[in-house]
Specification:
alpha+beta; Sufe protein. Chain: A; three-stranded antiparallel sheet; 3 strands; 57% helix; 16% strand; elongated
């Protein structure tokens, strides 16, 4: 196999993988898989949580708070692409929200925002939301101890 044939084979395989991912994740999920947002740890975060789901994936959420709202969110996961997509959409949904709105957020809200997601991976959205809410709880607990 020469270099051109090898490159053509690689491009064909990548195209097939991308087609399968689009089918499973829809366009929004596929785009977020290829271009994650809000991924990364925030230095000096106001709130932080780290949870491990039943699947073994670990999710971390970092919050910056401004007044009574979530101003910035960062996430990190050691899990699969579904965990990363769920973390990214969860972070996006939390930005600018009040504490009550964040505590009312559900995994279903994240799944609705993504649009299409493999049923076997839906637990990733629930893990991301639980981690976000724990990060907010850590902030609120720290504030209560200071008063």
């Amino acid at each position: 196999m020469n270099d051109d044939e090898f490159d053509a084979l690689i491009n064909q395989i990548q195209g097939e993988v991308f087609d399968e991912a689009r089918q499973a994740l829809g366009e929004k999920g596929f785009d977020r898989w290829r271009n994650p947002k809000f991924c990364g740890r925030l230095e000096d975060a106001d709130g932080y949580a780290r949870l491990t789901g039943d699947c073994g994936d670990t999710m971390e959420m970092y919050l910056r708070i401004d007044g009574e709202k979530v101003a910035e969110v960062g996430y990190f996961t050691d899990g699969c692409s579904s965990s990363s997509i769920a973390g990214s959409f969860t972070a996006e949904l939390a930005m600018g929200k009040s504490f009550t709105e964040v505590l009312d957020l559900r995994g279903k809200d994240v799944l609705d925002e993504i649009g299409r997601f493999p049923e076997s991976e839906e637990h990733c959205a629930h893990l991301a939301v639980r981690t976000l809410q724990e990060a907010l709880n850590s902030y609120l607990m720290a504030q209560a101890k200071m008063s």
